[in-house]
Amino acid sequence: MNDQESNQLIGQFPSVPKQERAYQKRQALLESGRILFIEKGFDHTTAKEIAAHANVATGTFYRYFCDKRQLLMALIKDQLERFMPPRPSWLNHNDPETVLAEQLASHYDRLEKLGLHRVLPELLPHDPELTEVFADARRKLHKSIYEGLKHAKDLGFTWNDLDLKSVAWSIIVLTENIPKMDIDKGANSNYIFVAKIICRSVFPPDVLIKLKSGEKSFE
Amino acid sequence: MNDQESNQLIGQFPSVPKQERAYQKRQALLESGRILFIEKGFDHTTAKEIAAHANVATGTFYRYFCDKRQLLMALIKDQLERFMPPRPSWLNHNDPETVLAEQLASHYDRLEKLGLHRVLPELLPHDPELTEVFADARRKLHKSIYEGLKHAKDLGFTWNDLDLKSVAWSIIVLTENIPKMDIDKGANSNYIFVAKIICRSVFPPDVLIKLKSGEKSFE
Amino acid sequence: MNDQESNQLIGQFPSVPKQERAYQKRQALLESGRILFIEKGFDHTTAKEIAAHANVATGTFYRYFCDKRQLLMALIKDQLERFMPPRPSWLNHNDPETVLAEQLASHYDRLEKLGLHRVLPELLPHDPELTEVFADARRKLHKSIYEGLKHAKDLGFTWNDLDLKSVAWSIIVLTENIPKMDIDKGANSNYIFVAKIICRSVFPPDVLIKLKSGEKSFE
Amino acid sequence: MNDQESNQLIGQFPSVPKQERAYQKRQALLESGRILFIEKGFDHTTAKEIAAHANVATGTFYRYFCDKRQLLMALIKDQLERFMPPRPSWLNHNDPETVLAEQLASHYDRLEKLGLHRVLPELLPHDPELTEVFADARRKLHKSIYEGLKHAKDLGFTWNDLDLKSVAWSIIVLTENIPKMDIDKGANSNYIFVAKIICRSVFPPDVLIKLKSGEKSFE
DNA sequence: GATGAATGAGCCTTCATTCAT
DNA sequence: GATGAATGAAGGCTCATTCAT
Hints:
The structure is a homotetramer. The first copy, chain A, has helices spanning 2-10, 20-40, 47-53, 58-64, 68-78, 80-83, 96-114, 120-123, 128-154, 164-176, 190-202, 205-212. Chain A is mostly helical. The first copy, chain A, has 2 domains: 2-78, Orthogonal Bundle (Tetracycline Repressor, domain 2), CATH 1.10.357; 80-212, Tetracycline Repressor, domain 2, CATH 1.10.357. In chain A, helix 2 crosses helix 3. The longest helix of chain A is centred in the middle third of the chain and has 27 residues, at 128-154. Chains in contact: A-B, C-D. The C-D interface holds C 40-41, 43-44, 118-119, 121-122, 124-126, 138-139, 159, 161-163, 165-167, 169-170, 172-174, 176-177, 180-184, 189-190, 193-194, 196-197, 200-201, 204-205 and D 40-41, 43-44, 118-119, 121-122, 124-126, 135, 138-139, 159, 161-163, 165-167, 169-170, 172-174, 176-177, 180-184, 189-190, 193-194, 196-197, 200-201, 204-205.
């Protein structure tokens, strides 16, 4: 079970409860933790509050998690892939810009629903383990994007004078930070605009026109 | 004096000490606060610790700052411009890529020396005043970059199909996040690579060649 | 239960404990508070001391009372009627002087056992709520005594030239302040002497003689 | 000098300043202490506040008083006689009731102007020295009143069946507590009503009539 | 397992008092 | 003498964690 796996990463104790009731309690605690961490910040949320919000006793909290940090870790590791922006897949679609914009829109949709990205900044600077978890995820994403770019380069589709690793990092940074760009609040055009910029930094104009026109003779 | 001015922003009490001794003590507290905030995080640093680190008694801390948040505010507002990445100035130099790379290098140099950027993420999500201070600074920077881009566009130097506001935001986001791109750790090539990508997202290749070749017949 | 009722007056939180253990702990804290307030004064007693005296940890204090003022309020409101001197009941007994003296003796007996009257003077001048609680109790007592006097007057038993409201206030003031009169310390004759004076200020001598001689043809 | 005398009682240090400037500073501190003690209570007033209110430095406070308690002591001992209610002088005037009422009115006038009676209750229960100072003053007043009563008794003017010491205490208690009787707020009739009651508890009606009619053939 | 009362270290802050200038 | 910055003990209160029921 997925849930069990992710807990293996964190530690053996307290064990994942087998009983259905217990499982639900654990889920309730996770959900309460998520809500309260988002609302009040990690440090300003107490274990007691989480327990109360989940309708269990304070002591019960400690049966399922050794402390609130472990609860957060469980939340995050459970959902790690949700935190990472999408890997653009340029070459098997008609219009890479539109496709990327859609990927971004749905990514931020999921992220917003989870909300935990609001909690991370508080923890990351002083939690080496968490930092490493994310650095690792980003490295994997980077590698994946980089390979996609190299593939495109091999096909002669990219700029020749750009460092592809840097391009991959730029893609990650741009896609991670779209909410910080407050262009035309309300309109969701951010996504398409940023997608255009990203594509422009990858493909020369002529390639882009070809890609848009639907020549899908690759990959 | 510059320092006095910026303190005016924060509040009248406790007043900026007139005496030299007192001034030094205040500086020592600021410096100790800076160091400890960076080292252990804002929430996990206590006023007592800051005082001890500055070799003064706990009570002395409260003579100079009403609480540790005010100390941090003083630190930040003092140095606000250091936090913001540079505004690229493309049009009056030989090679916009090199120039931008140099600007970035020196920006991160200063930022790293200060170190406070490591503390902000902890505060921003739950400190509306601080959030506003930075949002404001970013808006100003955005406006400035955007105007530079518009100027270039009026001269026919930019891509035609990109939204300049988005481009400006992308520049901000990219320049703010270079440390998160761990390309070839140790080498400072990040800066030039990112500078290249930024320039590419602003100027078509032919313009870029002209700019690099030093035709400075504009602005 | 009486104790629960009076606590309703004070506030819902922290709730009156349901468990027997908890109830006893709350009582222990109340009792410790009472003793220490009397011994050292309200301001000079700390929550920590009260907790220690009750053999519980500091934090436990705050489970039962939000602060020491609330503890004192609980003590006082619980025992409000003990603070007030008795309402003399002249007309249904043989000798009003003796009866009043007995009432006074038992009033002070109870008051002394409680001891809290020593704490009030410290609080009253700067605690409007407490002031009002007592002002109210005194107004009620005054009304009751005044009505008793008016009844006596209607029967033609009182002086004609005295303002009955003032007489009622004088009775309250005299009965409240007997301990400040150090007549023959040790002997409890204060009570009878003051009772005599009070009766004299209410009844003309001839009426008094009648009342003492046991004519109980009234009320 | 009166001021020196009262300080002798308190202690030798800090000495009463000889310089005029210093004398004024001391007075300013006394006055500031008086005002702040009345306003915020003794315990809740800090030495620093008193100094600030008197426009002197914190340290200066300690040159004139060893602590705030000593300042209060100085205030009180300076004005001790103002705190005590008047000794009624029945026998050399036309109407003892009116005269007493006037004495009371002017007593409370002075007391209210001083205001310190609002501070005493906070201190008395836990300051043995202060308690003794007042107990002593009350004993003296009691003795004086008692002697006046005995004189009247010797002349055959008083009730025969009342204990004169108790009567004297009752007079003190009544005259001390008039403000607690809220008869007809606004009207100052309290004084005359209470004066009547007091006179009634001292003199039988026939004596009273004689005294009012102005037979001043005694004393 | 579940409960929630109990614990007590530790944080923030105040203030009486001292002392270098 | 005067100043006011500095001190640090102490109080009020919170909360992560334990443990008896």
